[in-house]
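Sequence only, no structure available. Ideas?
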Amino acid sequence: MIRKFDFLVIGSGVAGMSFALQVANAGKGKVALVCKTTIDEANTAKAQGGIASVTNLEVDNFDKHIKDTMIAGDYISDPAAVEQVVKNAPAGIERLVGWGVNFDRKEDGSFDLHREGGHSEFRILHHADDSGFEIQRGLIEAVRKHPNIKVLENHFAVEIITQHHLGVEVNRHTPNIECYGAYILDPDTGKVDTFLSKVTLLATGGIGAIYNTTTNPNIATGDGIAMAYRAKATVKDMEFVQFHPTALYHPGETHPAYLITEAMRGYGGILRLPNGEEFMQKYDKRLSLAPRDIVARAIDKEMKIHGIDHVCLDVTHKDPEQTKNHFPNIYAKCLSIGIDITKEYIPVTPCAHYLCGGIKVDLNAESSIKRLYAVGECSCTGLHGGNRLASNSLIEAVVYADAAAKHVLSMINNYDFNNKIPEWNDEGTMTNEEKVLVAQDMREVGQIMSNYVGIVRSDLRLHRAWIRLDLIYEETEELFKRVKATRDICELRNAINVGYLVTRQAIERKESRGLHYTIDYAKHAYDYK
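Reply:
I predicted one. Tokens follow.
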């Protein structure tokens, strides 16, 4: 089946929905919003801490936010991208509020602001401790009401369509590659349909699910990045994978692991060993409020020194009622597994959380492939550099969705559908035995990435990962050619592609910098081995 939409949006987090609403409001055509599962399952909904923006001008300003972002990114960040996000953040907040998103406010009506690690001021807007969920809720309501947006849930994008599908040889040196839409799997028919579009936007989120333990949902298999890479788009900074220092340690809950927001450390939480001993003073003068990469490595080091599987976060010294009011969901979650956080330590451990790299885009969010845009975690705008500053990701998605929408609307009249695109060849079958192989390979990818391409790396570990991923890649591509496309084998292909990119770009960076910490190039006085 061939379907036509002026705007094809793949992904339903804050990035995809913000863009969809803005182009739909312009009245220049129909929008398809393709969701891998349901519209409410996205990394956005898992973001507890909040969204960063300068709003209290009495003490804060753009220069401070820019400086904090550059420092956290280890000065690898693109200054133009940082300035674009920081200076357009307040307008982005206004759009979210206009779409029905609620942020906590003080009695005088001003925003109740939090502070998180790496920020010099209180500038985190939030909704209790489920800010991402609230943003997702507000946008979903607005999207569902919009007559120009068609929501397609449980549809899986298989490949980006380019000249390659017309028989033209396309490689990384081919000029003027164009995107004409995507091949998308319909779960009801089991068929891969041809979606033709004038403009395609990828907002497919991150890659956390390629690791054994992650704060991301199971769907975070890097689909958009893998599709764009196979279509010969430029992919950048994949070595910078952020591990959140404080996921709730609860064996059995790994995809996703429950996130203990950084705002809890901003609130005054102290990291301790299970015996009560503090340890962050050994690693950074900012103690528990040091940037995430430093805190995650410190925890990893302490766990290895003491042979333990978690450390603890302590808020027992804080006012109990205040703790419950600020973090009602964390309080309830911990209580459900027998931990009263007002009286007991919270067991925490680092796990895969956020990708700072992705599909390289310009200030308009356009990739190296014409008519293909990328926004949110799947994109590499240059904002995050070597390490993302807490709560900068949601505002990046909102600001770049706006930039993409404005650029697309200025160009849309120059584009048309390419009606020469062939339909998907759906020959092949898949047996239950083959499904077992796919599941086993996905587990192996998680083990390889966690063991060899994790918080602390080395050339030996990275090359070992490369060799093992290459073997699984060859086996999977051979299988993919002879079976019908299904979500599980497509996710496996994507996970392998993305794991390869993280590993390869980590090998290529001959320094220890930002989130890429390698013992072969480390220059710190203390040793994380």
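Residues 213 and 253 are 8 Å apart (CA to CA).
Hope that gets you unstuck.
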